[in-house]
């Protein structure tokens, strides 16, 4: 299974394109920074049942995210039986791979996972421009990957999605659903340039 | 005051340490014989369990509830029921996984590692891991239970698992707890309850 995941990730179709993102009309910037608020509480253990679909092959596990200081997050993925698949530490801009199964320890796998989870946990990025369409206020941030677009529901002001969209085409789309008390009960991460999707469902205590 | 505290500490420590002592050679022999006998007599085992995943950075262990069914010689169904539904059946040369309705079968016929894993699971459920050449085993006793600590000999395996600890009921040799300790000292602890031996289990339990 792990070997398949690896070979699937290696068949990275660099030239495929995702759908175009609809930003809406440009409006004046109303806030300096934006980010994901859903992993920002130091007192919470964020535990999710995870389902991964990679090129039609499927496997599951448990994703654990914990903010351990103002600038640090641990992101750990285990099997249902509890054995670790990977264990990452994000300390500001520094990334440390505490552990990953040797079969998965390939640059493309680690980079893909590192980037996905960094988007999920980053709480503040500078806003460079802002748009509005009928449903969302869209905030564009600048980063080395061509910028992310944060869509907030116009009425609830709740963050609904983050899209990594270099050149206006969506490469990675993360959506947050069933938000209660600042916890996103359902999170979906979809890649458009590789057939990888991750569905997360919050586990109640 | 500090002297008093030190005395209290030494007293508490000695009491704590004295609760677990190493078995002597004859105790090991009779303990092993009891467990092997209990294991051989168990044609079926049903048990509930609670799994505790301990990660040093979390405020609380992650608790998962489930049930286990075993039928000799080698059928195992390991099922989580709360807070999510997930089951694995170890059958013949296959792992049959049902993850909340998503079903998956993995052929393990060609994988030595999975065969080893399967054997380990069956043997740890039954408690009979003592003849396994892959581990160095040490034995301890406490007032209410016996403990066997299995340390892998293989350096590759040691990268994943520092040790297995199995706790046994001293009266009937049944496994009451399994703890898998990682090199980082994070661990997974499984505590069994409502254990039933030799109640009929239909083969259909082990199908998807």
From TrEMBL, chain A:
This protein's name: Lipoprotein
Organism: Patiriisocius marinus
Automatic annotation (TrEMBL), chain B:
UniProt entry keywords in alphabetical sequence: Signal
Pfam families per the UniProt record, alphabetical: LolA
Any coiled-coil regions, as ranges: none
Keyword flag tRNA processing: no
Keyword Protein biosynthesis: no
UniProt signal peptide: 1-18
Listed PANTHER family: OUTER-MEMBRANE LIPOPROTEIN CARRIER PROTEIN (PTHR35869:SF1)
Protein name: Cell envelope biogenesis protein LolA
Species the sequence originates in: Patiriisocius marinus
């Amino acid at each position: 299974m792990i070997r398949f995941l690896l070979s699937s990730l290696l068949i990275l179709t660099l030239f495929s394109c995702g759908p175009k993102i609809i930003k809406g009309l440009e409006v004046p910037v109303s806030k300096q920074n934006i980010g994901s608020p859903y992993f920002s509480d130091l007192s919470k253990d964020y535990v999710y049942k995870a389902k991964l679909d990679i090129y039609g092959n499927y496997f599951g596990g448990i994703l654990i995210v914990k903010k351990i200081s103002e600038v640090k997050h641990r992101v750990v993925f285990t099997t249902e039986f509890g054995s670790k698949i990977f264990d990452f530490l994000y300390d500001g801009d520094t990334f440390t791979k505490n552990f990953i199964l040797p079969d998965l320890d390939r640059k493309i796998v680690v980079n893909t996972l590192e980037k996905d989870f960094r988007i999920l946990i980053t709480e503040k990025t500078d806003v460079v421009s802002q748009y509005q369409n009928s449903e969302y206020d869209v905030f564009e941030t600048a980063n080395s990957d061509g910028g992310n677009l944060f869509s907030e529901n116009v009425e609830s002001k709740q963050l609904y999605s983050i899209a990594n969209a270099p050149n206006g085409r969506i490469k990675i789309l993360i959506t947050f659903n069933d938000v209660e008390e600042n916890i996103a009960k359902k999170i979906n991460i979809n890649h458009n340039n590789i057939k990888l999707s991750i569905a997360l469902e919050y586990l109640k205590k | 005051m500090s002297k008093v505290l030190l005395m209290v500490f030494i007293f508490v420590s000695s009491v704590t340490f004295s609760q677990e002592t190493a078995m002597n050679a004859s105790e090991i022999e009779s303990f092993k014989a009891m467990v092997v006998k209990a294991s051989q007599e168990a044609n079926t085992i049903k048990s509930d369990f609670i799994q505790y995943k301990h990660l040093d950075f979390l405020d609380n262990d992650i608790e998962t509830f489930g049930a286990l069914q075993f039928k000799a010689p080698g059928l195992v169904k390991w099922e989580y029921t709360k807070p999510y539904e997930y089951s694995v059946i170890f059958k013949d040369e296959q792992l049959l996984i049902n993850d909340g309705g998503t079903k998956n079968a993995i052929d393990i016929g060609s994988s030595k590692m999975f065969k080893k894993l399967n054997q380990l699971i069956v043997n740890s459920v039954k408690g009979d891991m003592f003849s396994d050449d892959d581990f160095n085993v040490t034995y301890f006793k406490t007032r209410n239970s016996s403990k066997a600590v299995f340390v892998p000999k293989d350096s590759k395996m040691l990268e994943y698992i520092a040790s297995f600890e199995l706790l046994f009921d001293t009266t009937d040799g049944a496994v009451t707890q399994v703890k898998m300790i990682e090199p980082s000292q994070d661990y997974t602890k499984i505590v069994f309850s409502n254990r039933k031996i030799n109640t009929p289990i239909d083969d259909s339990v082990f199908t998807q």
